[in-house]
């Protein structure tokens, strides 16, 4: 990596900014007394995380590749040692657990090579790239996004030397040649399509570093990119018909389609312009044939057919309220009936105000029956949980929400401005549930036009002083990153926000508490370290909550190491933030194999340090996290008898206690013994350890 890590780049303390509004200050400063306990807060956070996950599943589930596919023409999921590699459209993201380097490499396996060769449709650009590899060690392959450049590059390298390896940058990092370990006779692919500004710098650095081995590097770059340093080839698309036929033959070798099915598929193919769409169609066709589902039925569930139906519904001479109800449920699917119908009416009034010419209100058919609207959008009203809680409006096919948003946005440009105003209005006054849905809907729109969403939503929210606006921007970025072709762009956006104003920092912290941060935990933790150690106590609560989200079995060691560094090197602000964060990790909220309780892990060297810090750190004569003692009892000492790791850590905690904290420990031990929370033997044992310390 040519750039310094965030913790070094941000050592200088940033200048103070103007005071934030009371709402923002409330989130950026620790209150002396909390309105809810740590356990209550963690329970609420977990519920929010689950709701966010469900919302994203509704918007993106149909666009994710099936597990186990290896489709070099488009979307790929592969297993690699100690983790996963995902290639989607044109990006590969790697998570191996533990600390990630700036870049890693992934050589294609024999099975992957066989898959690629068995489904390859050769193009003119592949032949030209292959010829250049005979004389040039560095070649650029330029083209539009999602057009199969990766397949062409890999195929050219395989034809040249029989092997191909990905050079994979992590998060927002820009790879530097000194991080690569090029081996003689090997071919490499580096994707810079998302970072056009770094193309000249990287390839010049490659030339200066010298590819003095007998290796070859193909760099994927944006369309129309030229360079004086290396030759560039313009990528051309493979034949959709040939690509479909090859993948179908591999997925379902015995498939026999009649003439009607062939015509239906031919029409479907004409609607697609990218190889991954063609490959997905071939896979779904193979699955339909093998399961006995008709081709027509399979196609009816695909995006194009659903889009056509939504488009026809919107074109019908249905009252405006019906179409507004469709828009409302596309955003608020799964929320109470009153919110969905009220939002529909608000949109109708907004459209009327925008389009009226004579300043006379247009009559609405306010007495329309809800069942007509539900039938119109293929939805249903179901009773909410618990008596007296009204009804919930749900789409019978949740995937329709994403289709509706796409059709409304792309095919009806005249309502974009009112739609944007309407979404801002919903987000400003709605509940937490509404904000999640609105933020994710905006993120979905970003996958259609990121620049417009960045200008009309994210930038506005980034200039706000309201915590709810920061949450909305984070939700939008979280959703945008679900589209793998935008993930790296979102990482770059967050990196700039971490170095921006306080509102932007707050947004980035929230956004990292998602799959974005899980894909690059070390980068997220390094950014948090910079904020914790340079911005005083302003962001401690947000950082603590975000790290609690990032906690997993395979991130636990990295997190505990960072927190221990904060205690040892960060002074008072470091100790304070470490205490606030650690108690959230120690709070057991529905542990799972993926998120085990700390006491279930092998003892980490930093656990004793972190426990003692949380149990003793004071400000103004008061413990910063008084709940730490209750957590020590309820989430740790109750496992003392059956977990050796707990005994080892607990004994060290009490044997290293001194001064004021020793008196506090003796008081709690006496209280717990009196209340019967711990056995008399354990009370005497721990008490002796305190007296010996």
TrEMBL record:
Organism field: Nonomuraea recticatena
Name the record gives this protein: ATP-binding protein
Biased composition (Basic and acidic residues): 28-37
Location of the region described as Disordered in the Swiss-Prot/TrEMBL record: 1-38
Highest taxon, organism lineage: Bacteria
